[in-house]
Amino acid sequence: MGLVVQKYGGSSVADAEGIKRVAKRIVEAKQNGNQVVAVVSAMGDTTDELIDLAEQVSPMPAGRELDMLLTAGERISMALLAMAIKKLGHEAQSFTGSQAGVITDSVHNKARIIDVTPGRIKTSVDEGNIAIVAGFQGVSQDTKDITTLGRGGSDTTAVALAAALDADVCEIYTDVDGVFTADPRVVKKARKIDWISFEDMLELAASGSKVLLHRCVEYARRYNIPIHVRSSFSGLQGTWVSSEPITQGDKQVEQALISGVAHDTSEAKVTVVGVPDKPGEAASIFRTIADAEINIDMVVQNVSAASTGLTDISFTLPKTEGRKAIDALEKNKAGIGFDSLRYDDQIGKISLVGAGMKTNPGVTADFFTALSDAGVNIELISTSEIRISVVTRADDVPEAVRAVHSAFGLDSDSDEAVVYGGTGR
């Protein structure tokens, strides 16, 4: 008997019919001889609706109380799903994140998992039950307060439980048939990937691919938990994410030269203008940003002007952190010694990802040629061993993604990509 952890996103359990459909799929896995643990997100847009409601009551809701409110969404899903499974003649028990043993740090709204002690879950499945766990939530190790893991945190909950339970596989059910070579909403001819390595998936997730959360993939790689990304709306095989290639029939699936094209329009650019070009200035800027608990992405420093000895430093960060970054830098303006700040939230990032870049010197040239032919102007460039990222105008992103996708022969022969639920999560 194997142990399978399944995760179902909000679009999969958006209404009563969706919950009943998910219940049937879970029961099928149980009837196939598996022990089953299912992790669920809140129904449809429940989380967004709860956030809107909180902001109507208080423009700046306290983190602790917001977490208490938001966790209600997943608790509704888990209870309804357990009822639906019992209606099908199987025993099911629902558990909150804290009851499931998900232990986190004390940072509200974006807590990180410290440990998972799934004693109650193990006991439940050993007794023949299907365990249903509320995703996205845990309990603080220090304060014992309820915490949430940030958007997409149910993926991380599922992988963390799979690791703690030594599961055979973690199945992530969403509203697309797997991981595609580009967002199917932007590129209709995007192709489904049969297998992708943890490394390539990490780069895609960090670059804006929304089908899997970066933290989820990172956790899976650390504990070597295979992930199978599938649609809850179809019975098709999805995408395997693992350290080793999968075998289909008698053939092993080979690593593609290019895994895909990702894009992200949720970032903004801050330019610190007139920074003295001397040791320690960049450190002062990024220490200020770090002290404000803001994550940054791309960084570019211009060559200093010989006449003034001043330079400009630009970096990208989430739009949601833009105001906080500007305030933190302005507060420390005298200490850093810059002239002014520029803020731009009308940008987009396009990234090309693939392990084959390491051994194919023409990839970079082809990438920039495709953007040039599409008339896309580049503002920032960042690279890693298996990724090239550029920042452009937000309006140029869809055309840029399609141009790069076609240039690298990633287009399928037909409109293969289907988005069943409309969100891609």
TrEMBL record:
Domain of life: Bacteria
Enzyme Commission code: 2.7.2.4
Reaction(s) catalysed by this chain's protein: L-aspartate + ATP = 4-phospho-L-aspartate + ADP
GO BP field: diaminopimelate biosynthetic process; homoserine biosynthetic process; lysine biosynthetic process via diaminopimelate; threonine biosynthetic process
Positions with a binding annotation for substrate: 47, 74
Amino acids binding ATP: 7-10, 174-175, 185, 210-211
SUPFAM superfamilies, sorted: ACT-like, Carbamate kinase-like
One cellular component (GO) term of this entry: cytosol
Pathway: Amino-acid biosynthesis; L-lysine biosynthesis via DAP pathway; (S)-tetrahydrodipicolinate from L-aspartate: step 1/4; Amino-acid biosynthesis; L-methionine biosynthesis via de novo pathway; L-homoserine from L-aspartate: step 1/3; Amino-acid biosynthesis; L-threonine biosynthesis; L-threonine from L-aspartate: step 1/5
Function summary: Catalyzes the phosphorylation of the beta-carboxyl group of aspartic acid with ATP to yield 4-phospho-L-aspartate, which is involved in the branched biosynthetic pathway leading to the biosynthesis of amino acids lysine, threonine, isoleucine and methionine.
Family matches, as NCBIfam families: asp_kin_monofn, asp_kinases, PRK06635.1-1, PRK06635.1-2, PRK06635.1-4
Record-given protein name: Aspartokinase
Species the sequence originates in: Streptomyces variegatus
Origin organism lineage: Bacteria, Bacillati, Actinomycetota, Actinomycetes, Kitasatosporales
